[in-house]
Every structure is written in C-alpha cells, then in structure tokens.
Specification:
InterPro entries: Pyridox_Oxase_N, Split_barrel_FMN-bd. It holds the Pfam family PNPOx_N. This is Pyridoxamine 5'-phosphate oxidase N-terminal domain-containing protein. With 209 residues, this protein is an alpha+beta fold. It is built from five helices and eight strands; from the N terminus they run βαββββαββαβαα. Strands 1, 2, 3, 4, 5, 6, 7 and 8 form an eight-stranded antiparallel sheet that branches. A hairpin with a 7-residue loop joins strand 6 and strand 7. It is globular, with a radius of gyration of 18 Å.
Length: 209
C-alpha cells in the first residue's frame, strides 16, 4: 500500500543514503516537449540536508535536459528503488534549483577538494511531497561497483582547462581560455541547450574558476 508524507521520514533517509543509484525526472512546459529520465550514480553524489531539502552533484553528460527543464519550471521527481532486501520504491517530489560550476553557491557546497571530476552543477531540491510504494515487480540486482569511465575522461579535460587558465596573461586577454578538448568547450558545445532548445548551462563554460 502506497503512503505519502509532507517530508522525508527519518527511516527513509537512512535507506536512501544506502542506495547506489537513483533516477531524476523532469519535463518542459510545452505539451510536445521531451520528458526526461536520467539515471544517477557515483558514491557520495547524493546529499540530504534535512527532511525537506536534498541535493546532488550533477556530472557532465552528453546532454543537459534536467538543468534546462529546472531553469524553465523547477519541477523534478527523484526516484529510488530497492534492488536487494525488502521491496521498496520512494519518490521525492520537489522544486529544483540549479547552481552551476563557478557560482558562489556551487563553490560553497563543492569546493575543489571534494568535487568529483566532471562536476558541472549542484541540483538543490526543496521536497514538498514524498511517496513510497511496494515495488513488488522490481527485480533483484547485485551491485558490482561504480563505473570509472566518466571520471577517467573528465580528469584530462579539466587539466587542459586548468593549464590554459594558469597560462593566461590578463593584460593581453579578457576572455577566459577554452581549449578545444577541454571540459568547458565540451559544455559549450553539448550542454548549452536542451533537445527542445531551452537554455541549460549559462555560466560554467565561461567561468574562470
């Protein structure tokens, strides 16, 4: 039997923080726009502030639907489900805010010493409703480990950006450097808009941080 709550129960917070992955769903306002569902992983990327507020570290991807949709309307649902033990599904319904790489809010939550390679934003979610259900049809799966491909790809791209910024002479150029194979160039080319043309990353690709 499904249950609904106005905030995240303490027992559910404990369970959520043990999960190895979650999904986020967003959509644009236009009726024929692309509804998006994205799987998320990597240990330590999801954080619970309190019973009504959570956030996760958004990593670089081939697209940027979630950020674009949140900029337009803020609607987001985060889903967790059990792959072992008792069946359980949990949905966090909320209003999301984007803090891009290079913004003060991002830098406060994710200083360089703790952020993951490829990190591009913080997605902060104000939770207004929580739903749990059984998940009786969800299969069992054994967790083998987190993939390292994104991290491995991002490190050399970030290093190119860093080296270019260190070599910049402010007296001769006011434009932030952007190596063609750097992460910021990738953001500019692939993460600036959604499939429906909505703006996504606005500042990260030009940040000098």
């Amino acid at each position: 039997m499904g249950q609904f709550f106005d905030e995240i129960p303490e027992s559910l917070i404990t369970w959520i923080l043990k999960q190895q992955m979650f999904w986020v769903s967003t959509a644009p306002l236009k009726s024929d726009g692309h509804v998006n569902v994205s799987p998320k992983g990597l240990e330590g990327s999801f954080h619970v502030v309190d019973s009504r507020r959570v956030w996760y570290e958004d990593l670089t991807g081939s697209g940027n639907e979630t950020i674009a949709h949140l900029r337009e309307n803020g609607r987001i649902t985060i889903l967790f489900n059990a792959f072992e033990g008792l069946p359980r599904i949990a949905r966090l319904f909320g209003k999301g805010t984007v803090y891009e790489y290079g913004t003060p809010e991002y830098e406060e939550l994710l200083p360089p010493s703790v952020r993951k390679p490829g990190s591009r934003a913080v997605i902060m979610v104000e939770v207004y409703k929580v739903g749990t259900s059984c998940g009786y049809a969800v299969p069992y799966y054994d967790f083998k480990g987190h993939r390292s491909k994104l991290v491995d790809m991002s490190i050399p791209m970030q290093n190119l950006d860093r080296d270019a910024e260190l070599a910049l002479d402010p007296s001769t150029s006011s434009e932030p450097p952007r190596p063609k194979k750097g992460l910021k160039s990738y953001w500019a080319e692939n993460n600036a808009t959604s499939l429906d043309g909505l703006p996504a990353l606005l500042y990260a690709q030009t940040s000098t941080r």
